[in-house]
Amino acid sequence: MTEPTVRYRSPEEDSARWAGFEFRDGDIVISSRSKHGTTWTQMICALLVLQTPRLPAPLAELSPWLDWLVLDRDELFRQLAAQPHRRFVKTHTPLDGVPLDDRAHYIVVARHPLDAAVSLYHQGANIDRDRLRSLTDASPPSVPAPAPRPRPDLHDWLVAWVEDDDDPREQLDSLPGVLLHLRDAWSRRERANVILLHYDDLRSDLAGQMRRLAARLGIDVPAHTWPELVTAAGFDSMRGDPGLNAPNPVGVLKDPAAFFRRGTSGAAEEVLSAAEVDRYRRRVATLGPPDLLEWLHRDR
C-alpha cells in the first residue's frame, strides 16, 4: 500500500479519515471533484457489482463518502466491513490524498470544468447551510451563523471562478483545484488499477462506457442483464427516484430532486461571451498539460 502524501481538509471533509481503512480485494474507490459525475459513477458501479436495477439500499448508504465529517467514521468503517458485496467508496480527494492499494481500483471522473462549475453554482443554492453547519461546526450553538453574502448571478460568478487564484490544496472546487485533481490522476493513468472516465463519454455512449468499465474491473455481466442496467444508469432513471439516488443521507439538500438538474454539457457557453470563454482557455492552459486539456475539452 502506498500511503497518502498530502492531507486535504475543508470545513466539511478530511482525507485523514482514510487512516486505518482496511482494504479488501476488489475494492473500488471513486474519486472526483464536486459535480463531475461522482453520483453517476457510483450508480454505475452499484449496477455492475449488484447486477440489478433494484438497489437494496439508498446509493449513499451503499457507497458512502468516506471523507465527509458529518458521518461518524468508526460507524462508517463498521458498515463497510459488514458489506458482503464488492465495495465501492466515494471520495472527493485527489489520489495523492488517499491510500493507494494494489488490491483496489481507483476511478477518477472528469468533466469539462466550466460544466462542473455551472452545476456547482446551482448546487450551492440547494444546500441547507444551517443544517450543514449544525453537523460540521464545532462552534457552540449560541454563536450565530455568519450572515450569508449576496449571491451573484451565474455569469458574474463564472467569470470570477475562472479568474480566482485560490490555493488548490485549500479550495479543491476552484479551477486550480479541479486541475490539481485531474493532473494527479492523469499522471497515474498508465497504472492498471487507475481508470479515467469522462462525463461526456458517459453522456454519448453510456452502454459502451459501462461495458468498458466492467472489463477494467473484471466484472462479468450476463448479456440479458445489460439493457436494464444501462436504463437504470440513465440520467432520467436516476432523477426519477431522488430519495434513493441523491447523496443526501443526513438531509443537507433542500430538494433532493434538484440535485439532478440538467445533466447536460455546454451550459457555460450559454452565458459567457466568446471572449470570456477564450479567457478561460488561456487561464486553464497554465494549469494543465496539453494532452490532458485536449482530452478534457474535446475541442468544444
What can you see in these coordinates?
Helix content is 41%, strand content 6%. With 300 residues, it is an alpha/beta fold. Strands 2-1-3-4 form a 4-stranded parallel sheet, with helices on both faces. The longest helix has 13 residues, at 38-50. 34% of the residues are buried.
Question: How would you summarize what this structure contains?
Answer:
With 300 residues, the chain is of the alpha/beta class. It has 14 helices and four strands. The protein is globular and about 50 Å long.
Task: Report the sheet-strand fraction.
Answer: 5-15%
Major sheet description:
4 strands, parallel
What is the CATH third-level topology name?
A: Rossmann fold
Roughly how many Å apart are the termini? Answer: 39 Å
CATH architecture: 3-Layer(aba) Sandwich
Look at the helices and sheets and give the structural class: alpha/beta
Number of domains: 1
Low-confidence sequence ranges: none
Order of helices and strands: EHHHEEHHHHEHHHHHHH
Described by the principal axes of the CA atoms, the overall outline is globular
CATH class: Alpha Beta
Number of helices: 14
Label this structure with key terms.
300 residues; alpha/beta; Rossmann fold; 4-stranded parallel beta sheet; 14 helices; globular
In terms of topology, how is this protein built?
Layout: E1 28-31, H1 38-50, H2 59-62, H3 73-82, E2 88-91, E3 105-110, H4 113-124, H5 129-136, H6 154-163, H7 175-187, E4 194-198, H8 199-204, H9 206-217, H10 226-233, H11 235-239, H12 242-245, H13 274-284, H14 290-297
Parallel strand pairs: 1-2, 1-3, 3-4
